[in-house]
Amino acid sequence: MDEGFSASQLTLRRPAGKISTARVEADEFIIASGVFNGKTTGTPLCILIPNTAQHSTDYENAPRIARPGHADYTAQCKYHGYEDFRGGGHFSGRITAALVAAGAVVIPALRAKGIKLGTHIASLHRIEDRAFGDIAADIDTLNSSAFAVLDSEAAEQMKKAAEEAAEAGDSVGGVLETAVTGLPAGVGEPWFDTLEGVLSHALYSIPAIKGVQFGAGFDLADGFGSEFNDPLRNEDGRIITLTNNNGGINGGITNGMPVMFRCAVKPTPSIYSEQKSIDLKTLENADLQIKGRHDPSIIHRARVVVDSMTALVLYDVLSGRYGTDWFCGRSAD
Amino acid sequence: MDEGFSASQLTLRRPAGKISTARVEADEFIIASGVFNGKTTGTPLCILIPNTAQHSTDYENAPRIARPGHADYTAQCKYHGYEDFRGGGHFSGRITAALVAAGAVVIPALRAKGIKLGTHIASLHRIEDRAFGDIAADIDTLNSSAFAVLDSEAAEQMKKAAEEAAEAGDSVGGVLETAVTGLPAGVGEPWFDTLEGVLSHALYSIPAIKGVQFGAGFDLADGFGSEFNDPLRNEDGRIITLTNNNGGINGGITNGMPVMFRCAVKPTPSIYSEQKSIDLKTLENADLQIKGRHDPSIIHRARVVVDSMTALVLYDVLSGRYGTDWFCGRSAD
Amino acid sequence: MDEGFSASQLTLRRPAGKISTARVEADEFIIASGVFNGKTTGTPLCILIPNTAQHSTDYENAPRIARPGHADYTAQCKYHGYEDFRGGGHFSGRITAALVAAGAVVIPALRAKGIKLGTHIASLHRIEDRAFGDIAADIDTLNSSAFAVLDSEAAEQMKKAAEEAAEAGDSVGGVLETAVTGLPAGVGEPWFDTLEGVLSHALYSIPAIKGVQFGAGFDLADGFGSEFNDPLRNEDGRIITLTNNNGGINGGITNGMPVMFRCAVKPTPSIYSEQKSIDLKTLENADLQIKGRHDPSIIHRARVVVDSMTALVLYDVLSGRYGTDWFCGRSAD
Amino acid sequence: MDEGFSASQLTLRRPAGKISTARVEADEFIIASGVFNGKTTGTPLCILIPNTAQHSTDYENAPRIARPGHADYTAQCKYHGYEDFRGGGHFSGRITAALVAAGAVVIPALRAKGIKLGTHIASLHRIEDRAFGDIAADIDTLNSSAFAVLDSEAAEQMKKAAEEAAEAGDSVGGVLETAVTGLPAGVGEPWFDTLEGVLSHALYSIPAIKGVQFGAGFDLADGFGSEFNDPLRNEDGRIITLTNNNGGINGGITNGMPVMFRCAVKPTPSIYSEQKSIDLKTLENADLQIKGRHDPSIIHRARVVVDSMTALVLYDVLSGRYGTDWFCGRSAD
Questions:
Q1: What are the tens digits of pLDDT across the range B10-27?
Q2: Is residue C333 part of a domain?
Q3: C227 Cα to chain B: minimum distance (Å)
Q4: Helix, strand or coil for residue D74?
Q5: Which structural domain, as residue segments, surrounds residue B138?
Q6: Best residue in C127, C193, C229, C240 to probe D by mutation, most D CBs within 10 Å?
Q7: Closest by CA position to D39, among listed B77, B64, B84
Q8: ipTM
Q9: CB within 8 Å: C332 and B324
Q10: CA A152 to CA A323: how far, in whole Å?
């Protein structure tokens, strides 16, 4: 983190509404270090978000029986039983609040350099949002929306699908699509640290993401080279591509077009239906009936995390090319 | 690279056949350092693969007009015109030979620990191979096949589709699916270095890969939690999941099931049809007619690279957990 | 940090006595994450040490005039004026409390593997302690001493020298010598990550350290090869060297002898005598008269930090070779 | 390595003269990748320096008996006997030729930014060179000298001392002192990556270096704060310190004064006198009589390596702050 960013009016985004959990988490935070006179200092920025709403009784039975689709069993394999299994421990989605806090500092810094980003729910349980149109305007729309869908009718259908899944004791997933505008051409590395590579590396830290694709992604696999090559043109002195099937990246490096990617978000694994599983203490077969309050979908929450993680990666990559002084508006010579 | 691996009979895999380029590359190699008495020494292993077949006249006109879908324009943006543009420079797929050479050392080391991996062409231009069945047996089949398709009829159709694209001056893409068996449960990190994250980071270095997904990947986005949670069972003392929609990974950590992932490979961008582009010297619009000899598909070559890159990542992750001595059969105490 | 360490009785070491500052710092701490049932969980261990005794009036005039020997001016150059200059900001020696907290967890983990370490004040303002004798016993003595000097007469002279310097409004420095026993032979890398390199890299983070040397260090420069080569012998089946001028490290790798190194600690730069300096706001010349309470020496405090930093590096290097599971008493196969 | 550096006239520095080895090493090199039209391309720069003069008979007996002071025994501990023991394998000082080759590219890039560096033999076997005077002029003198000593009388005495040691079948060490001018103030990190830390980390890779100190180094330990604080002054608009006991670095960050440090170089461990040791195959005691041709001192060769390693670290640190584009003369906006 470089110095001089305004951090005093830090506001963390969190979603609300009917399909979100009834659990109230205050999301109040304490800036423990790294801010002086309302600006970041260059010292590590430590933001504490106390976990105020731990209903340990909700989880009373859960830790003994592994929740399928969660990390309960793999955590035990990795940590040899020392893991804090209450509420999923550090595998809990609540941990992403820290990423959102970091994003809240970095996103304005990118914006000050003309770089904007936003994410919409491209689909939720097969219900599709409209595609990005005027990307810059759509980003602004998304960033002021509680439920990040561009087509309001699709938004209603998505909410309805999530509510129906909840009523059936089930959950749904979807696809998030992110657009980044204003990135200079020439950013990224050809080998090992391609922009696709460093972004996907980070994005896979977000719980429930099981796929990441750039541009037309898996659709590219089905077509012809002649359809997907993105012809180049000089448009009034600006080099563009006529299509953007490569998602603004060629050879791991930005080409000046919007960077576009999609993340597959799996259905929330916490469902109410009875599930086959094992008892983690005995490793014997046992059936699981999850109690407590859980969201039928986390995709509308995850999009804020995707934005934040993306911003952190871009900030890092841009600092590498232009220097840590660049974001402070300093030039080297 | 740890010491003691047998490197003296190093054999590099390369594909042949009608749909591959007519360009002959001898793939002879020189081990410049790191081997003594037929074993790796722990010193950096330097393998040189001279580029013997550079027909510079083939590329005579190409570098002036950016090839759409290639990195010609982005390389110029990044390297300010200092890049070696002949044959795509270090963006050329030929560079992957170095990864295959490294994989040739590491793959047997993994195999000595009971870890096997293989990749098939899951689809080529919408023609689908059969799914993995007996995974360990299928891996063996694939690793002895020049064209890595499990269903021989699908293989013929795929070759035919690639040849037809070639005749039409066009190219095709596809999807590669990789399976890894024998990985211990508990490998990977919950945050930042999830196994999905470190694998995808590396895989995106392979030219033409534009999507990576684990387990059911983007299909997970369309279903219900109740369908995809992978119920756990104790099967004769071994913990398994009844399905493997999460691709052997929960919370970024292996669960002991086969690790499964898919990569989207875009159609080879070098096609013979005329394409709109720009002249890189003047940045004016210019049309491009690619000459020379080019493959209509690189997917059957890319699978060897995917295997190698995967093996390198797994070797690294396993060394972290069990120590660099582990692969030498040494124990610490 | 690996899991399963006992962290519940964490005790932070801090020195006391006449030559230490009168400033009271409670050193109470809060474990905010990473401990469950009295053991580390594998989750990042967050230990908060609130800074309770900030007398901002002490520093009222200081920040405007750079304190020579401190980082006031360089901080302004690096952070463009956004730095928190109160009390030296994150350049303050108080930040080392965090390293000591981390060391308090790792040192017992090393000890459980038979690795012990300790540091004595080898000299303070030219007054020399006796050399290490029975190293293992001396380490135990040092770790139960508030003032880490092996020769009690030298200890008294050192304290007297520090007090005299304090009375004269001045400060003194010294040399710390650290010994580590029980390290296996074969740890470290020959190039780039030599054990000397990774240790010195970390040690230079400790404020006031301006020199690091291994074994006979700079004395090696003055003698003959025949004096310093450390002849090897097999002593009842154990390979030893008859002398230890190389400090237990050859070619960057441990040889099984105690690892020995020395750190030069400069005199505390906060002195009461008037000093020439500049005003940081105007960059004009200005004289400085430091007020407040300051130690005439920090070397007796720094030794705890040196121990902790050394332990952190060794833990890291050993985990690399033997795996993160090693410290949990797990074997890989 | 960034692009656009001139690499076509790459000249590797190597010393000559009576006290150097009679072994002739041609130091011819091949640029295998990374240069196009006489400039670096941004692709990894691969420079091969074939080892042409390997007299394996010289080493016939050596590998069986560990050479004291060398890494023969520690290499066997680390690499479990797989190491290439001929001529010291990759512990050989000849490997430093690769660092010198890299330095030959980076040093001119630093110079183009006004940053100059040079190293002299501050002492050889207690014979002292004069101190740096007009540093910039002295650096130029050193860089055109085969034997880097500022005082020609001291130079003759040093050579004589080395020759006398050679005649006695022994070897000598010394101290190298390096000065860097033109570094901007504000470069380095306060914690973990202090400039002292990253420089010493790299310098300890150079064989025979056993001590690194900055500014007055270990002498700082003996004096008073009032002597060593380096008072600040504004001298005609430029901020300087009146002394430079801190070696141009405060709090890990450059202050704009020359960066000054010293490295202790131990006597060459290859001596002709009989030495006690062990047989590496049986681990039994055995005496060693080294044959072949060896230098009585390597310090006059090591200084070129110190320059190169320093330049590589500074290039890296400066790229971090000002961006990789900075060295190409590009600005970000």
A1: 555 655 455 555 454 556
A2: no
A3: 30
A4: helix
A5: 3-328
A6: C229
A7: B84
A8: 0.93
A9: no
A10: 42
